[in-house]
Design brief:
The complex is a heterodimer of chains A (about 425) and B (about 375).
Chain A (H helix, E strand, L loop, with lengths): L17 H40 L6 H5 L1 H7 L12 H16 L3 H9 L5 H12 L11 H7 L6 H9 L7 H6 L2 E4 L2 E4 L7 H32 L2 H12 L6 H12 L4 H8 L15 H25 L4 H8 L4 H29 L3 H6 L7 H10 L4 H25 L9
Antiparallel strand pairs in A: 1-2
Chain B lengths: L2 H19 L2 E5 L3 H19 L2 E5 L5 H11 L6 E5 H9 L8 H4 L9 H5 L9 E13 L24 E4 L5 H7 L8 H5 L2 H12 L5 E4 L4 H7 L5 E5 H10 L4 E16 L6 H14 L2 H7 L6 E2 L32 E3 L2 H20 L1
Helix pairs in contact in B: 2-13, 3-4, 7-9
Classes of the chains: A mainly alpha (about 425), B alpha/beta (about 375).
């Protein structure tokens, strides 16, 4: 029992107000609880959130231009790009000074590769000019305009300077525009020429195919999960091993196995020709297209659908079905009105897993997708490892992340995320 | 044990480990038969001579991206990296590879010829140390092409004379050149034409005539597999892969050397290594790219040595015992009509044309 003082405050045993004493005790508990999760939190922050943040921030970073050519960028800012005339000597002189520093630090070629993403030809222009400009003295050899144009005719092209001016900021929206088949020009935003538009199409294809794959996983996985949940535990274990077995095989092996199955001289076609269902000269094309990708990916992602479904179905008491039937429901009504609604959380969990995994897949589409079955991730992989255009890759990745989050949000609004159960 | 003692002990252990690691170097290459050939010709003799343990890392396919990531993280763990010349140029441009002075850092030929002259034009970048010349060329199924075997690369575009599927690499490089060549463009003019929008369209239009008959590959092993299974009648891949299919697996496949595209593969040393590691890497390079070693590699794999002085030393295959010289892409009989990968051109146009090529593929 605590005492009450004259002014009405409840006091703890040591005379401090109870409220303060309680909150202190609670705070200590909270800190202890926080300390317990802190290692995990720090781990996640350092190894997951931070690297992803750094990678995503590349999608707008453009500091390489103003850092390599600080003076040029400043002087070029005053140049009127719409005049159609070359910038004056001051720009060329500033450029020569910047370049002599950059060449010393061997940074000019890196800038060339960066700008080559925007305008073809910059890469060799910077590399070749670098070799020749090494001999120029940034003071004694003035004026530079003529000399630079003689070194490479690109410096006498207005477009060159327009591109430099457009991409002179510390940050750029250029990568994001590129990621949606547009580009930044001195006159503002413009669509890419039609023969280069591909990324939006791939985004769309990735979403549609992922939905189809998720759908076929539900159709194939549901009966299996039901069987798993309703046979005797011994048989269920055996079945579960069969479900998990492909899971333990290398992804590449499974994908390549599909190649052997589906190709035109493969197992399925040979069998169909042998039993006479398909004429020999007109074998089915089952691989290197959308169909091959859907089949192979459905197979690979199926366990991710079956396992959450199974664990949810296990918790549905079989007596409910019996109860429904004893009250006059047909088999179908009992299933549809009683059993199925209770299994929806498993379908939800499995669908989210399969959909999000398939949206980011790229090895399987690369191997069995041909030209019609590749995903947006294949382009991301290309820009990360081949073209080294990490800014564009980061922009594509950011968009993909936003799309996934938006779909997740929509799912929450329509179905409700509380309805998702992993077991 | 007190904390201090524990710390001292672990520090000492780390130091010991560090000293032990000093006798190791990590060499990155392509894996498979190629790494095996390097192991036989370079790594084993070098380890025997110096006692350095060589660790193989099969990451060459994504070496450029990985090296860039390592360099940004400030922890480069590779000592020598095997890359194709185009990647070496990229790495050099990015400042990720060490610049090499061929005459002081590489061995002279036995007759005293300077390395820069011995390698000649193959020194395509300041950072690149050429090792082999390989080619991308076509192989065809001898039993599926009818009575008249193809003799020119344009057979690929002739679906009437040679019906059936063909496999081409899923990238514009090489395919665009072959398309133009077979569309009547003179060999010398190919890159001038390809530098124009119309030229690029012309090449894509030519490829469009066989688009439905093409299986696009992305790994070098795809075409040999497709040929072995009879999925395609002809397909492009690296000549060493075809050599293995013909001579080792005895498949009914023959080489179509016409219009083969030469490309180079070689070493780079990552920039920013510690002095000690760099010295060891340079020592290895000096050893591994001398005239005799380069010729030795051809005992294991059918790629031509990059030094002029190595060519006469090419002998027989180590296990098959066949003469290797006629299987080299550089052999005069095979090299009647060749292309050399145009590095400058593709460094500039690769992103642009690749975007168009991929958009065209997806159509």
């Amino acid at each position: 029992m605590s005492d009450s003082t004259a002014n009405g405050l409840v006091l703890a045993a040591d005379g401090t107000p109870l409220k303060r004493s309680l909150s202190r005790a609670m705070r200590r508990q909270k800190i202890r609880a926080f300390m317990l999760v802190a290692p995990l939190l720090i781990f996640v922050l350092l190894t997951f959130i931070y690297p992803i943040g750094v990678m995503l921030s590349r999608s707008v970073q453009n500091d390489i231009v103003p850092e390599t050519l600080p003076e040029t960028v400043r002087v070029l800012g005053a140049w009127d790009a719409s005049s159609g005339e070359l910038p004056d000597e001051a720009v060329y002189a500033a450029f020569t000074r910047d370049m002599s520093v950059a060449i010393e630090a061997k940074k000019h070629t890196r800038l060339g590769s960066r700008l080559n993403y925007e305008k073809t030809g910059f890469s060799s222009m910077f590399r070749q000019s670098g070799r020749k400009m090494k001999k120029l003295d940034p003071v004694a050899d003035a004026p530079f305009k003529e000399k630079l144009i003689k070194i490479h005719k690109g410096w006498g092209d207005v477009e060159t300077w327009k591109t430099l001016q457009t991409y002179s900021g510390l940050y750029t929206s250029g990568y994001f525009l590129n990621a949606v088949d547009a580009r930044m020009t001195p006159e503002g935003m413009a669509w890419q020429p039609e023969d280069k538009q591909i990324l939006l199409k791939l985004f769309g294809r990735t979403l549609v195919m992922s939905l189809i794959i998720t759908g076929s996983c539900i159709l194939l996985g549901y009966p299996i999960a039901w069987l798993l949940a309703n046979v005797s535990p011994r048989n269920a274990n055996l079945l579960l091993i069969l479900v998990l077995l492909p899971f333990w095989t290398s992804l590449l092996v499974r994908t390549s196995a599909w190649k052997v199955m589906l190709q035109q001289n493969g197992v399925i076609n040979e069998v169909l020709v042998w039993i006479g269902l398909v004429p020999d000269g007109d074998r089915l094309i089952l691989i290197n297209n959308e169909f091959g990708t859907i089949v192979a990916m459905t197979h690979i992602l199926l366990p991710f659908m079956i396992l959450p479904m199974y664990s949810v179905m296990q918790t549905i008491p079989p007596v409910y079905l019996r109860a429904a039937k004893s009250m006059g429901a047909t088999n179908w009504t009992a299933f549809w009105r009683v059993y199925f609604p209770q299994s929806i959380p498993g379908i939800g969990a499995g669908s989210i897993l399969v959909f999000i995994l398939s949206i980011g897949y790229y090895i399987t589409p690369e191997i069995v997708g041909g030209t019609k079955g590749v995903f947006i991730s294949n382009r991301i992989a290309y820009h990360i490892s081949s073209s080294l255009n990490w800014g564009l890759a980061a922009a594509l990745g950011t968009i993909l992340l936003i799309v996934v989050l938006a779909l997740y949000w929509a799912y929450d609004r329509i179905v409700g995320i509380d309805n998702v159960k992993l077991g | 044990m007190t904390l201090t003692k524990l710390l001292t002990a672990t520090t000492a252990l780390t130091l010991v480990a560090g000293v032990a690691a000093a006798e190791e170097m990590t060499i990155v290459s392509w894996g498979g038969a190629y790494t095996a050939s390097q192991k036989g010709a370079y790594h084993d003799p070098y380890s025997e001579k110096t006692g350095v343990t060589i660790i193989n890392d099969d990451s060459s396919a994504e070496a450029v991206a990985k090296l860039r990531a390592m360099s940004e993280a400030g922890n480069v763990t590779w000592d020598v990296v095997d890359v194709v010349a185009a990647d070496a140029i990229r790495l050099c441009d990015e400042g990720l590879a060490l610049e090499i002075d061929a005459d002081t850092m590489l061995a002279d030929a036995p007759d005293g010829t300077k390395a820069s002259e011995d390698f000649g034009d193959l020194l395509v970048s300041d950072c690149f140390i050429p090792q082999i010349v390989y080619s991308t060329t076509f192989g065809y199924r001898t039993d599926l092409v009818g009575d008249t075997a193809p003799t020119t690369v344009c057979a690929v575009f002739d679906t009437e004379a040679y019906p059936g599927k063909r496999s081409l690499e899923k990238r514009p490089i090489n395919n665009m050149e072959w398309a133009l060549l077979c569309d009547g463009v003179a060999k010398d003019a190919v890159y001038d034409v390809l530098a124009t929008e119309e030229g690029q369209q012309q090449a894509l239009d030519k490829l469009a005539t066989i688009k439905d008959d093409v299986i696009w590959w992305s790994a070098g092993a795809d075409t040999p597999q497709l040929l072995a299974d009879g999925e395609v009648v002809m397909g492009s891949t690296y000549n060493g892969r075809l050599f293995a299919a013909i001579e080792e697996q005895k498949l009914p496949v023959a080489m179509l050397w016409d219009a083969q595209v030469f490309d180079l593969d070689g070493w780079i040393i990552p920039a920013g290594l510690s002095e000690e590691r760099q010295a060891r890497a340079l020592d290895y390079i000096m050893f591994a790219t001398d005239t005799q070693r380069l010729a030795d590699q051809a005992q294991y794999i059918s790629y031509g040595p990059a030094r002029k002085s190595s060519a006469p030393l090419v002998g027989k295959h180590k296990t098959l015992g066949i003469d290797m010289a006629p299987h080299m892409p550089t052999d005069p009989n095979n090299a009647k009509n060749t292309f050399l990968y145009n590095y400058e051109f593709w460094a500039d146009y690769r992103d642009d044309i690749d975007a168009k090529f991929q958009a065209w593929l997806a159509k």
